[in-house]
Amino acid sequence: MLPTPLRAVNEGLAFLLELAGLALLAWWGWSTGHNTLTRILQAVGAPALAATAWGLFAAPRATFTVPLAAVLVVKALFFGSAAAALYSLGRTQPAVAFAAVAVVNTALAERDRRHRR
């Protein structure tokens, strides 16, 4: 179980990672569009799709209660997509760092949740 201050920091970091993931997907969408319409559609659509999946299955108050494995799959797809978007923009080292921080953060959070039950 994480000490309360560390849990608060980890939860705050999780929220910042989620916001960063949405921003990275929007940046990718805007950067890879070939004209203004596709840029707007991708910059809005990619984060909207990711946020919808997160809200339905992975959020603390998700619409649907699913097994932990399904939640982790949604989180892996979300953070993996954001890291892949950053990588595709030529930002290799930041993409690897983002993915690594997301993995450690998620692992700590899930371990803590398990121990608090």
Please provide a written account of the structure:
The chain is mainly α and 117 residues long. Helix content is 84%, strand content 0%. It contains four helices and no strands. The chain has helices at residues 4-32, 36-58, 68-88, 92-116. Helix 1 packs antiparallel against helix 2 (36-58), helix 1 packs across helix 3 and helix 2 (36-58) packs antiparallel against helix 3. The longest helix is centred in the first third of the chain and has 29 residues, at 4-32. It is globular, with a radius of gyration of 15 Å. The relative contact order is 0.15. The model has no long low-confidence stretch (mean pLDDT 95).
Features:
about 120 residues; mainly alpha; 4 helices; about 85% helix; globular
Topology:
Elements: H1 4-32, H2 36-58, H3 68-88, H4 92-116
Helix pairs in contact: 1-2, 1-3, 1-4, 2-3, 3-4
